[in-house]
Design a protein that fits this description.
Largest sheet: 8 strands, mixed
Distance between the termini: 30 Å
Number of helices: 13
Structural class: alpha/beta
Strand order of the largest sheet: 12-11-8-13-16-17-19-20
Helix content: 25-40%
Radius of gyration: 24 Å
């Protein structure tokens, strides 16, 4: 069974859609997963804990203070046990608690303590769903990396028609299955990722650099590894954690990033240029700190890493990034053509949070046209990039 050995913790909050969660639990059990259920007290008004105990073959947790006969702190033990924490239905109330750090029952404390992948399935009245307060809370969770199975539109239990109906059980199970067991569609592929910012020294105390945190590159590395690729990272200055399963080559300058990338070009068949190399470097470098009331620095052009790869890549795939402030699509298309790239991921840095953020708003630019996407996590952007590559 596909999910044998995987631990799924399902949090159930109080809404009419609770009855659908019975099918969600059955779906995971059919796939071989171990399922633990946490219910809020309100949820028990719709379906009894006994029902979920029967379906999951595990005790259901409701009360924070029930003595269970063992000495584990239960919300911590479930948080550590989980490979995935799924909250369905996720009411406006519980999402508000998650977003604002409120931990006043077993579900909210487990959610806060859990470092595993988290998924929420909103379910509520359409007016509540569209409210500014709820959308702000949901956006906060997305920015923290929480995945969302979007609510559907249709006839609601209250009699209204609109968006707010919880997604169907099979769609939820399928979504989570892909998170737990990503398709190994990059097996046998070798991916090279440039990541982070380069630094060009002015003297021994100062340098020229940029705002890149490396978070986008780190997300690309994680996605590629989970999909079965062998990954090499040419890594500049960064704050993001880099998956240790990758082969990491640390560099400082753009010329070093260029050299390390080019000499490995023959060994790789996918190139993702997520790094932020400085386009220019100071012409002169001082080995002692420059002390002057006025400073004039002459810059020289650095070699273009992506353009070099594009000139010699043949049938290999090249993805470049384009951080733009004006004429964004036109400039991204120029970059796509100049670098001989297969895909250009455009970021509008004037109107969207990009540098140092956990989310991104991108437009994919190819020879065939442009596809704009809404704000999403950088990991979701990474998955979209590899979806595009594997679809070729």
């Amino acid at each position: 069974m596909k999910l044998q050995g995987k631990n799924v913790v399902i949090g159930v909050s109080g809404g009419i859609a609770v009855y659908k969660v019975c099918q969600v639990v059955r779906g995971f059990k059919k796939l071989g997963a171990n399922v633990d259920v946490i219910m809020t007290e309100n949820a028990t008004e719709f379906v009894t804990p006994l029902t979920f105990e029967t379906l999951s073959c595990n005790p259901v947790t409701v009360d924070m203070f029930t003595r269970s006969g063992h000495w584990e702190v239960e919300h911590v033990s479930l948080a550590k046990k989980a490979d995935l924490l799924l909250v369905c239905p996720a009411t406006a109330n519980v999402i508000g608690k998650f977003a604002n750090g409120i931990a006043d029952d077993m579900l909210t404390t487990t959610f806060m303590a859990c470092a595993a992948t988290k998924v929420v399935c909103p379910a509520m009245n359409c007016a509540m769903y569209e409210s500014e307060a709820f959308q702000t809370n949901l956006d906060t969770l997305v920015k923290r990396g929480v995945m969302v199975v979007e609510a559907e539109s249709g006839f609601l239990a209250c009699g209204d028609t609109g968006k707010g109906r919880m997604a169907e059980p099979q769609a939820i199970v399928d979504y989570c299955e892909k998170l737990l067991m990503p398709e190994q569609d990059l097996s046998g592929r070798k991916v090279l990722v440039t990541c982070g910012a380069t630094q060009e020294k002015l003297d021994d105390a100062r340098c020229i650099t940029n705002f890149s945190s490396g978070k986008m590159g780190a997300a690309i590395v994680n996605s590629a590894i989970e999909r079965g690729a062998e990954v090499t990272v040419i890594l500049g200055n960064h704050t993001a954690a880099i998956n240790p399963q990758a082969s990491i080559v640390n560099i400082e300058t753009t010329r070093q990033m260029y050299d390390e990338t080019v000499k490995r070009a023959d060994e790789h068949d996918i190139f993702i240029m997520a790094g932020a190399p400085c386009d220019y470097r100071p012409e002169k470098y001082s080995d002692s700190k420059i002390k002057t009331d006025e400073l004039q620095v002459k810059f020289v052009k650095n070699p273009d890493i992506a353009e070099k790869i594009g000139e010699t890549k043949g049938n290999k795939f090249l993805c470049v990034f384009s951080a733009e402030t004006d004429d964004c699509i036109a400039n991204a298309r120029k970059k796509l053509n100049k670098k001989h790239a297969d895909l250009c991921v455009m970021n509008d840095v004037k109107h969207n949070a990009v540098f140092g953020s956990d989310v991104n708003t991108v437009t994919f630019v190819t020879e065939q046209g442009e596809t704009a996407y809404p704000e999403m996590s950088k990991r979701a952007v990474a998955d979209l990039i590899f979806d595009r590559i594997t679809a070729k």
